[in-house]
Amino acid sequence: KTQKKLIIVAVECNTEGHMRLSEYSPVDFEYGPVGAIRGRGDMYMKWLVSILKPSIDQEFRTLTGRGHTAIAGSSMGGLMSLYAVTAYNHVFSRAAALSPSLWFAPRQLDRMLRQSPVEPDTVVYMDYGSLELPSHNTMRQQFSKVASLLLERGVLLDCRIVPGGNHNEASWEQQIPFFINTLLYEAD
Known about the structure:
With 188 residues, the chain is of the alpha/beta class. It has helices at 19-23, 41-59, 76-87, 106-115, 139-152, 169-174, 176-184, and strands at residues 29-31, 35-37, 70-74, 94-98, 123-129, 156-162.
């Protein structure tokens, strides 16, 4: 539990076909069983920061600055959280990326994380379940690489492998106390 008052906005994603992959990917990529995926993640993020967030800020008594704005997601949503906190670091100072889909386009992800301007007070919580690591052959290496890259960029990183964690909502729900504590740690 936290004593801080929070406003949590949940955005439903498109689950038809493989639209979640498209909607939550900042880049185009090839996915073996599906083929070419057109990344629409930047379009989604522009909508989120230019339409959704301003409407929330207008409707509710929010603290509008980046120091009070965080983003969180799981799987492809976790990937979008990493994208948001780096590419839109002027809007988001904190992010939680639960089981982020780091496997999808490692070269583009590496470039994105290296080139995006990141403020030194940026905080990221990133995890992955121990039971889901075998799902992708290179996941452990990619997770380690992304964590190292974030640390090199000066991001304040809370990173963990969740014992017994899996790639599903039940597992991610159990991580709420961990990532909320990280996102709110020393927040104004």
